[in-house]
Design a protein that fits this description.
Elements: H1 2-67, H2 70-73, H3 76-79, E1 84-85, E2 90-91, H4 94-125, H5 128-141, H6 146-165, H7 173-197, H8 201-209, H9 214-225, H10 227-242, H11 246-251, H12 272-279, H13 288-320
Antiparallel strand pairs: 1-2
């Protein structure tokens, strides 16, 4: 019996020695599989990231290909003139540019205080049960089609503007600004609310510990700490407003006039996006009018790029000052 036990004890290390190489091989196999899986995922993410940038570059190159002939066929004084009459070869884009700028600025001026105040209420003031209801409802508003809002503006908002404000017609720049402000609100509220939610709780506790009231802590501590996110929300809302086409085309009157008078806000205007949407389907491919519409698209692209660049510069300056961590 003792001899049998000793034989079993002598064979047990040998069995363990035989098992160890098998487990090591399995570990190496699993490690290689994990390495290959990680390699594939990283490269897939890299390819998708570069493809998104590539799509933007391709779109810009397409705009350049179709829009650059504009600057060779049309003289700059005519191209940036004050009269847009393609029938008479007058392609002045200034009424379109100023119309887009006017409608966008007024829309952001309306949506900014409402959006930031609503985001502060949802994040800092409203109870948890109300926040769980309000935030999905606000995000749902962004899914309403612009055509539906355009019909609402033509049938409800435009008559109110005409009757209440005494405008000659309800299809004015102010009507378009009201609709664009409404369409920008969900974006501004959602992004600003996320920025406020990202502010650490220690900031609020520190403000209250210094003797500040709840409102002083919100407006002087929390909101400044979330400034970069709020600026991003404003820029996204502005991009939503300046790029909107259908609703603006339906409620602004589409009159290519210079909005430089005191009552321009309550008169019809025409935006760049509405011009492209209204006239692109009627022009002959390769004609001067065709290339000018793509030139208007280039101008719109440059304006949007400048807005984003200004927002990025503000954010980067705050990072250099140590405002973001």
């Amino acid at each position: 019996m003792c001899g049998a036990r000793m034989n079993d004890q002598e064979q047990q290390p040998r069995r363990e020695a035989r098992v160890e190489p098998v487990s090591t091989a399995r570990g190496l196999g699993q490690g290689r599989d994990h390495h290959w899986g990680e390699f594939l995922v990283e490269n897939a993410i890299r390819v998708l990231g570069f493809s998104a940038i590539g799509f933007v570059v391709l779109i810009f190159l397409f705009l350049l290909q179709e829009g650059l002939p504009t600057f060779f066929r049309v003289e700059l004084p005519i191209l940036f003139g004050q009269r847009w009459y393609p029938t008479f070869d007058l392609y002045g884009t200034m009424p379109l540019i100023l119309g887009s700028v006017l409608v966008t600025i007024v829309a952001i001026a309306i949506a900014l205080p409402l959006g930031v105040a609503t985001a502060v209420f949802v994040r800092e003031v409203a109870p948890n049960w109300a926040r769980e209801i309000l935030k999905p409802m606000i995000e749902t508003l962004a899914g309403i089609p612009s055509v539906v809002l355009g019909f609402f503006g033509m049938t409800i908002v435009a008559p109110l503007v005409r009757d209440v404000l005494g405008a000659p017609t309800g299809l004015t720049a102010f009507t378009g600004a009201l609709l664009l402000a409404y369409m920008s609100l969900p974006t501004i509220i959602s992004v600003a609310e996320d920025a406020l939610d990202a502010v650490p709780k220690s900031y609020r506790d520190a403000g209250l510990a210094m003797g500040a009231t709840r409102w002083q802590t919100i407006w002087r501590v929390v909101v400044p700490a979330a400034r970069s996110g709020i600026i991003t929300a404003i820029m996204l809302g502005m991009g939503r407003a300046i790029g909107e086409t259908m609703a603006v085309m339906m409620v602004t009157g589409n009159a290519a006039r210079m909005p430089v008078t005191a009552d321009s806000l309550f008169r019809p205007v025409r935006t760049m996006t509405a011009t492209i949407a209204a006239e692109m389907g009627e022009v002959a491919r390769g004609s001067t009018h065709y290339h000018v519409l793509f030139g208007v698209g280039i101008i719109l692209f440059v304006l949007t790029f400048m807005i984003n660049l200004a927002a990025a510069s503000v954010i980067f300056q705050k990072r250099r000052r140590g405002g973001l961590r």
